[in-house]
Amino acid sequence: MQKIVIFDMDGTLIDSKKDITISVNYVRKINHNLSPLSEEYIVDVINKEVRNLAKLFYDTEIYEEKDKNMFEKHYKKQCIENPYLYDGVKDILYTLKDNNIKLSVATNAPTPFAETMLEHLHVKNIFDLVIGADKVKASKPNPEMIHKILDYYKYDNNQDLAWMVGDNTKDIQSAKNAGIEAIFATWGFSTHGTHQVIIKHPNEILDIIL
After folding, report:
1. Is the same domain home to 89 and 193?
2. 140-177 pLDDT, tens digit each
3. Three-state DSSP state, 131
């Protein structure tokens, strides 16, 4: 029997809100001459179940190519300036790994950014697979990312166990859509959730998985 834990990244493993905010505000200023947004607003928008990011970030109806390109170029360098792992995350990752738990990441961020950040924080080697939005046709809450990871492990739902750990409803819904268990983390971008399994500290993951 395999045990597989799939983690969301931003707001679950890593606090990245400062750098995301800096890059969004850079695009707002250069391309649109708009005033800066707060970190709190950025996080709230990211966690909305249904939202138009282009409208909420840049006051445009669609995500224009010039904004996308500028954000990605800026964030490529910015993304490793201020991110940090939440307290306790690194320890539980190594504990899970030491107990032969299969670990992967499913993030709506582009894979190259995710891998760069995880490498910078010295945890990329812990994960077997990192799947970002660029590697699927539809990002979370669509279950495609999770299915790709489960296929990688040759997951058998008759004997294997799998969990998705995330900080917003898109993570929880993607797990439900994929037919696996979900764990809602409240130490990051979301301080509360409505899901059945809610944890307030990374250590609680060990009680559930081990």
Report:
1. yes
2. 999 999 999 999 999 999 999 999 999 999 999 999 99
3. strand
First to last CA, the chain: 13
Task: Find the DSSP H helices in 48-195.
Answer: 53, 65-78, 89-98, 111-120, 144-152, 169-178
Residues 108 and 148 in one domain: yes
Last residue of a domain, one of 78, 98, 124: 78
Question: How many helical (H) and strand (E) elements, i.e. helices and strands, does the chain have?
Answer: 9, 8
The angle subtended at Cα 153 by Cα 139 and Cα 125, nearest 5°, is 80
Q: Model-level pTM?
A: 0.94
Burial 66-89 (b: 16+ CB within 10 A, else e): ebeebbeebbeebbbeebebbeeb
DSSP 86-116: PTTHHHHHHHHHHTT-EEEEE-SS-HHHHHH
Instruction: Give the Cα separation of 123 and 32 in Å (integer).
Output: 37
Task: Assess whether 132 and 46 both reside in one domain.
Answer: no
Answer yes or no: do 68 and 95 share one domain. no
